[in-house]
Every structure is written in C-alpha cells, then in structure tokens.
Design goal:
The complex is a heterodimer of chains A (168) and B (170). Chain A is mainly beta and 168 residues long. Chain A has a domain of 112 residues: Sandwich (Immunoglobulin-like), CATH 2.60.40. In chain A, the strands form three sheets. Chain A has a five-stranded antiparallel β-sheet, with no helix packed on it. A four-stranded antiparallel β-sheet of chain A has the order 1-2-8-5. In chain A, β6 and β7 form a beta hairpin. The longest helix of chain A has 16 residues. Chain A starts with 8 loop residues before the first helix and ends in a 21-residue tail after the last strand. Chain B has two domains: 30 residues; 136 residues, Glutaredoxin (3-Layer(aba) Sandwich). Chain B is built from six helices and seven strands. In chain B, the strands form two sheets. A five-stranded mixed β-sheet of chain B has the order 5-4-3-6-7. In chain B, strands 1-2 form a two-stranded antiparallel sheet. In chain B, β1 and β2 form a beta hairpin. Chains A and B meet through α1 and β11 of A and α1, α3 and β7 of B.
Chain lengths: 168, 170
C-alpha cells in the first residue's frame, strides 16, 4: 500500500496515534459555561461615606438564589447593616417550598455602622446560583475594596458603577 | 525526486511525528479516577463508605445537592436505571455536597435505591482534572468494571446517553 511505504510512514504513524488517543479519551464535558465570577458579576460603590451600593449583574441564562446571598465587611469593626434583599421571582419547589431567585440586576444598599474617614474597607459578597443549561455552582465569594472618603470629602470615583455594556 | 518534494515530505513527516508524540503524551496524562475511588465518605448515618467496595461494578458516580434543581431533576432516571440494571452489575453512587439531614429527607422522598454519601467541596475539587473545571453540579462519571472513566458529564445526563453508555458496559 502506497500510504504505508517510505516517506509517508511518519505521517501515517503520527495521524494514527492521534486518532487512537482521541478515540480513547473519555467523553469530555459538552458544555462551556461561564465561570461564577463572570455569570454573577459583583460590584460595589460608595454612595456616601456610610452607604455602599452592592450590585450583582447576572448574565442572561443564569440565576442566583436569594437566600444564598450574604455580605460581610472587613475590617469587621466598620459594621455592616444589610437590609432585606429585594424580592425575587418565587418558584414552587417540590422539596423546599417557595424558592426565590434573581435574574438580571440585583442592587442592595448596605450601611456601614461605624465608618472611619479615609479607611480602606473590603466588601465580601457570597452568592450561589445556577445556569439554565442545567448546572449549579458552588458558593462563590467576590470582593471589592473601597476607600472611604477623608473627612469632609465626597467619595472618590475609583470604583464607578458598572456598565451594562460589559456583557455585550 | 526533487529537493522540493523531499523537503515537503520530510516536513510533513516531522509534523506528523510531532502530532503523534503530542497525542501520545496527552493520552498518557489522561485523567483517571484513582483518587476518587480511594475515597471513603460518610453516608447520611455517618458510616464511612469506601468507594472501593464497588470495585468490579459498572459505577455511576453522581455529584449532586438538594438545592441543585438540575441535579434533582435527573435523579428519578438514576433510580429507574439502578432498578433495571443493578442486577447486571451497575451501581449508582450519589455524592451530595449538602447537609446529611436534607440528603436523608430527599432520599426518602425519592425512594433512592442507591447510596447517598456526604462530601464537601474539597471532594468535588477532585473532579476538576476530570473535566469539571468549575466544580459544578451535577457532575457524573461512568466507570467501567476496571475503574476507567468512560464518560464524564458536567450538567444533566440525557436518559438515552445514560442507557446507551451503560448498555455498552454491562
């Protein structure tokens, strides 16, 4: 056979090995979902010296569970007051009863109980959600660092509000 | 033979060899389930269950949680498949990233006919090199009787895919 003769041998051997090894490879994951940080994009900005606007921008085709969102602040001494989260879409779950989920944007105004002028704080947001393609993510914690304004100054604009265009 | 022709043939040959060697290296580094099968995880009663006890069976290892809707949706089919194919050596094992009490309650509601073991996300991390880069749920592995991974699925398994894969292994 001409293909197996002389100069073609290395090519045939290489190609055969490649085909064999690919065939032996276990069936790989067929889905290519976003990472949780991409699917549930978290941001936070200072509205004033004692108020933080926290926001999740949830990508199309993904959703977050309302009761699995938690916020914390570092240093803890800054004190964080979290209001009731906005109402989500209620779905009747056979096992858990009513379950609330969010799609699109979720905005929560957090209050700092004891902000210090000029202080650096970190807002940590834990969330957990799923994708419509049928997968769920482990709990994810995202962080945003904010510099509280010096006494008598307005908050700096180092962390501007996110633009919707980031998803386009 | 002209020099040009010789050059082309040599180039193609070298490229083919490189492809072959690359593929061979890739194949040799193919992930296996050794670390997973070496695990011993508690069931909902807190009794340690080594996965090695099911060696020699066609094993379906399904990572799930009660709060994971897509996980729960596919489980009734697993219960049916365990019932139908269990006598032929198929063993389903559920690994739940969840609270034991919730898992026990859900297992009862579903009439789960295969073991439900409890694990943390550190255990699910073991599935990263097996194709589950995002540590997502559900994640299902089908292993042949020798413990080789035949299928690794992120997200729900289609019933047809499950049955046809198992059909080839029993």
């Amino acid at each position: 056979m001409r293909l197996l003769s002389g100069h073609w041998r290395p090519l045939v051997a290489g190609a055969a090995l490649a085909v064999l090894s690919v065939a032996a490879w276990p069936a790989a994951a067929q889905v290519d979902p976003l990472t949780p940080d991409e699917a549930f994009r978290f941001s936070a900005r200072l509205v004033d010296a004692g108020t933080v606007e926290a926001r999740f921008m949830i990508a199309d085709g993904y959703y977050l569970y309302r009761d699995r969102i938690h916020f914390a602040v570092e240093p803890a001494g800054a004190g964080l007051s979290v209001p009731p989260l906005p109402e989500g879409t209620v779905k009747q779950d056979q096992f858990f009863g009513p379950v609330e989920t969010y799609r699109g944007d979720v905005v929560v105004r957090l209050t700092l109980k004891d902000p210090k002028p000029g202080q650096m704080i970190v807002i940590a947001a834990e969330s957990q959600g799923c994708a419509d393609i049928g997968i769920c993510y482990p709990p994810t914690v995202q962080h945003v660092a904010l510099a509280l304004p010096e006494a008598g100054k307005a908050p700096s604009a180092t962390n501007p509000a996110p633009r919707r265009a980031w998803f386009n | 033979m002209t020099r040009l022709r010789l050059f082309i043939l040599l180039t193609v040959g070298v490229l083919g060899l490189a492809l072959g060697i690359g593929a061979a290296v890739w194949y040799r580094s193919a992930p296996d389930a050794t670390a997973l099968l070496a695990l011993s995880l508690p069931d909902t009663q807190g009794v340690a269950q080594p996965l090695a006890q099911w060696r020699g069976k066609v094993l379906v290892v399904n990572f799930w949680a009660t709060w994971c809707g897509p996980c729960r949706e596919e489980m009734p089919e697993f219960v049916r498949a365990q019932h139908d194919l269990g006598p032929q050596g198929v063993q389903f094992v559920g690994i739940a990233v969840d609270k034991p009490a919730l898992v026990a309650q859900f297992s009862k509601e579903l009439d789960l006919n295969y073991p439900a073991l409890i694990a943390g996300y550190d255990t699910v991390d073991l599935t990263k090199p097996l194709g589950n880069h995002l540590v997502a749920l559900p994640f299902t592995l089908i292993l042949d009787r020798d413990g080789h991974i035949v299928l690794a699925q992120v997200g729900p398994l289609k019933p047809g895919q499950l049955r046809s894969t198992l059909g080839n292994l029993i």
